[in-house]
């Protein structure tokens, strides 16, 4: 699933009105994925596919590099929390450079979720 | 003959003096403590200090919350204060709270949301073993607030402790009465933007850029981005696929208005706390938890929601 790059919108961002997009780039050795764009209504299915891939990956730590993600809405955070719950003991999703809004929503509704790790540096 | 009695108890306490306030509140708190019930007090800060001092050692067994902070947005009080405390004690035989959401100084813009909140408490706790006492300052609140307290509370207790059933009790009627068209924007419109699914990110980007220009910053600017995303996404999903957003400033607050063709039929929408495993139902809830004030008008042809966020002093 990670061998191909996918985007939600046929057209990429333009200068005037950026159509919603979320691009997925596999990380080396199946460690996880790097994402760019944003998580919202139109890109929801790409995001849930990524999360399903994280659950299926059977790795102790699956990385989501979110440095290129400007925003994750509340339903996107909800999908992430639900995926983290499905991981099972000892496994986790590691968020690299999550947008501040995502961290805020996770703290509001799912404080201390064991399946999610946010490295501090 | 046995009758089924409603376990939820929701009296208003009419007080005219500090002595009457303390007499009514302390009796309510002490009765709960004697029965081993979890007790919380959510009142304005000056009254919080009065109750805390008067309780002495017992204060350590009571949860105190400054209602001017935690309940600044009336729409936040049910999910963020009252049910947050009640739901945290599922095994208690009864949970007891003092909630004072209406104080002298609440603005004309805030008041309809305050009154609707008081009415909706009755729906939010029907069937639950919960007691909520709502103090009303009879010397400083206007006649309308006191008359409405008879409509939103089945029982009113006066300063001498006398309980009176309220003949005017009609919470649904009050919610409908304050479902009012919102007045014209008081400030110059800074942004008008019509959005649909594909332009949701642009609606958010433009709103956030404008809010930053108006002085909103840091965590509150992040909160605003979340609020705009949830309101506009709601329009696309539930409000006819599109909507119109407007931004302006009014009395030191940023005002964000969203209009769409949706109809809000659930009076408790955005006022139910979300369980950890719950999927959905966090959109309006997030708006209520983060905003300083939320006003709504919903009718057959559409819904208007206005969200207020205080701007930092220039």
The profile of the biggest β sheet of chain B is: 7 strands, mixed
First-residue to last-residue Cα separation of chain A? 29 Å
CATH class of the largest domain in chain B: Alpha Beta
> Total strand count of chain B, please?
12
Pfam families (chain A): STAS_2
Protein name (chain A): STAS domain-containing protein
Domain STAS (chain A): 33-107
InterPro entries (chain A): MlaB-like_STAS, STAS_dom, STAS_dom_sf
Briefly, what is this?
With 121 residues, chain A is α/β, with parallel strands linked by helices. Chain A is built from 3 helices and 5 strands, in the order ββαβαβαβ. Chain A has helices at residues 44-56, 74-86, 100-109; strands at 22-26, 32-39, 61-72, 92-96, 116-117.
Please describe the topology of this protein.
The complex is a heterodimer of chains A (121) and B (314).
Chain A lengths: L21 E5 L5 E8 L4 H13 L4 E12 L1 H13 L5 E5 L3 H10 L6 E2 L4
Parallel strand pairs in A: 2-3, 3-4, 4-5
Antiparallel strand pairs in A: 1-2
Helix pairs in contact in A: 1-2
Chain B lengths: L10 E5 L2 H17 L4 E5 L1 H11 L6 E5 H4 L3 H14 L7 E5 L11 H14 L5 E8 L5 H10 L2 E3 L5 E3 L5 H7 L13 E6 L3 H14 L4 H21 L3 E9 L2 E8 L22 H8 L2 E7 L2 E9 L4
Parallel strand pairs in B: 1-5, 1-6, 2-3, 2-4, 4-5
Antiparallel strand pairs in B: 6-7, 8-9, 9-10, 10-12, 11-12
Helix pairs in contact in B: 4-5, 4-10, 5-6, 5-7, 8-9, 9-10
Pfam families (chain A): STAS_2 (PF13466)
Protein name (chain A): STAS domain-containing protein
InterPro entries (chain A): MlaB-like_STAS, STAS_dom, STAS_dom_sf
């Amino acid at each position: 699933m990670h061998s191909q790059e996918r985007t939600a919108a046929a057209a990429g961002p333009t200068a005037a009105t950026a159509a919603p997009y979320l691009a997925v780039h596999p990380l080396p050795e199946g460690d996880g994925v790097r994402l760019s764009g944003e998580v919202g209504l139109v890109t929801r299915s790409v995001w849930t596919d990524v999360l399903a891939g994280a659950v299926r990956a059977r790795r102790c730590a699956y990385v989501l590099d979110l440095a290129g993600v400007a925003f994750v809405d509340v339903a996107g955070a909800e999908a992430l929390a639900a995926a983290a719950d499905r991981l099972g003991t000892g496994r986790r999703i590691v968020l690299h450079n999550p947008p501040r809004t995502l961290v805020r929503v996770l703290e509001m509704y799912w404080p201390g979720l064991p399946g999610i790790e946010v490295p501090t540096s | 003959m046995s009758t089924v009695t409603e376990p939820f108890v929701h009296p208003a306490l009419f007080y005219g003096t500090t002595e009457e306030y303390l007499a009514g509140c302390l009796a309510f708190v002490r009765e709960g403590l004697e029965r081993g019930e979890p007790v919380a007090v959510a009142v304005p800060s000056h009254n919080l200090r009065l109750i805390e001092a008067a309780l002495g050692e017992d204060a350590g067994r009571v949860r105190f919350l400054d209602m001017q902070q935690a309940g600044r947005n009336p729409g936040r009080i049910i999910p963020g204060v009252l049910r947050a405390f009640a739901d945290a004690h599922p095994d208690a035989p009864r949970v007891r709270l003092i909630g004072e959401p209406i104080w002298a100084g609440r603005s004309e813009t805030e008041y309809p949301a305050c009154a609707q909140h008081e009415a909706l408490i009755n729906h939010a706790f029907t069937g639950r073993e919960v007691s909520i006492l709502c103090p009303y300052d009879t010397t400083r609140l206007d006649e309308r607030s006191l008359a409405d307290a008879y409509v939103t509370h089945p029982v009113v207790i006066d300063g001498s402790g006398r309980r009176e059933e309220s003949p005017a009790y009609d919470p649904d009627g009050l919610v409908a009465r304050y479902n009012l068209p919102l007045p014209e924007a008081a400030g110059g419109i800074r942004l008008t933007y019509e959005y649909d699914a594909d332009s949701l990110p642009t609606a958010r980007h433009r709103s956030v850029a404008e809010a930053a220009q108006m002085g909103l910053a840091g965590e509150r600017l992040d909160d605003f981005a979340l609020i705009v995303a949830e309101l506009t996404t709601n329009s696309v999903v539930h409000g006819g696929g599109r909507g119109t957003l407007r931004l302006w400033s009014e009395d030191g607050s940023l005002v964000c208005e969203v209009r769409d063709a949706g109809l809000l039929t659930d009076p408790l929408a955005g006022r139910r706390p979300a369980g950890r495993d719950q999927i959905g139902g966090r959109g309006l809830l997030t708006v209520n938890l983060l905003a300083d004030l939320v006003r709504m008008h919903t009718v057959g042809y559409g819904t208007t929601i206005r969200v207020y966020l205080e701007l930092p002093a220039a």
